[in-house]
Amino acid sequence: MEQLQSLITFFTEHKFLLTLLIIFVIWTIRRIMIKLIWGETNFLSEEQRKWISQTKNGSFTILLIVMFLVWRSEINEFALSLTAIAVAVVVASKEIILCFTGSIQRASSRSFQIGEWIEVGSLCGEVIEHNLMATKIQEIDLHHGTYTYTGKTVTFPNSLFFTTPVKNLNFMKRYVYHEFKITVKETANLYPMVPSLLARIDDHCEDFYEVATRYNHMIERHAGVDLPGADPHIHVTSTDLGDPQVHIRLFCPTERAPELEQMIREDFMTLYCERILKQAPVAIADDLLSELDSNALHC
Length: 299
Fold this sequence. Notes:
The protein is of the alpha+beta class. Helix content is about 55%, strand content about 20%. The protein has helices spanning about 1-15, 15-40, 45-70, 70-80, 85-90, 95-110, 195-205, 210-225, 255-275, 280-299; strands at about 115-120, 125-130, 135-140, 150-155, 165-170, 175-185, 235-240, 245-255. The protein has a five-stranded antiparallel sheet, with helices on one face. Strands 6-8-7 form a three-stranded antiparallel sheet. β2 (about 125-130) and β3 (about 135-140) form a beta hairpin. α2 (about 15-40) packs antiparallel against α3 and α7 packs antiparallel against α9 (about 255-275). The chain is elongated, with a radius of gyration of 30 Å.
């Protein structure tokens, strides 16, 4: 008992050593808990990521509280002496304060959670971690229409939430409104091709159309807005140079969007060659091949 009392007295007199001991204990417990949550899996699930994030945030909060209790008297004395330079401290810690308040704003508005897709400015990705200071996302190639991970991890301060709108793209993890356009150079009437092209698109979307319709209705009920629907849509416009342009919109599984786009582009070019150019698409390839062969012979 006397040894314990002397140990307590020693650490009370040497607060710096006590601080190092507390940091080491909390850090060790956090590492053990994260290792238990991680387990033997190679890829973390959304539930595991949530628990890991909560463990990190909880340990950091406990550390702050314990440090405040240990250094309370010193903090009170420092606070009294800080009055004269309060304005300078606020200006110097502006970004830190914004990060803290940005984290509070995110938590109060419930704008996103771990595992959801978000878009902040030009950054798009899946949230893998967030804390009081910053948010970390796994970047997704959203602007090029591939919806695949780029392999880049992006960390940005929470202060960004006050200056940049945050878009929650969580519904796009399963189904997405995929839009693309096809431009041709020759001036031609493309409207007669639209019914045939729609029929081919319906064939490509037949296997998931019913599921897409139900998912579309679910998003409408959740968002409380009238969405365009699950049916494919085509409209014809022209570019600034006057070239005909076909805009196509699909509601399809996210992982199949690039594949469906390539199939529809192939269908369009086939119909365009057959009906507009009055020439089979294979014949064009044969002509090009024969021209290349003749050039090779001349060389």
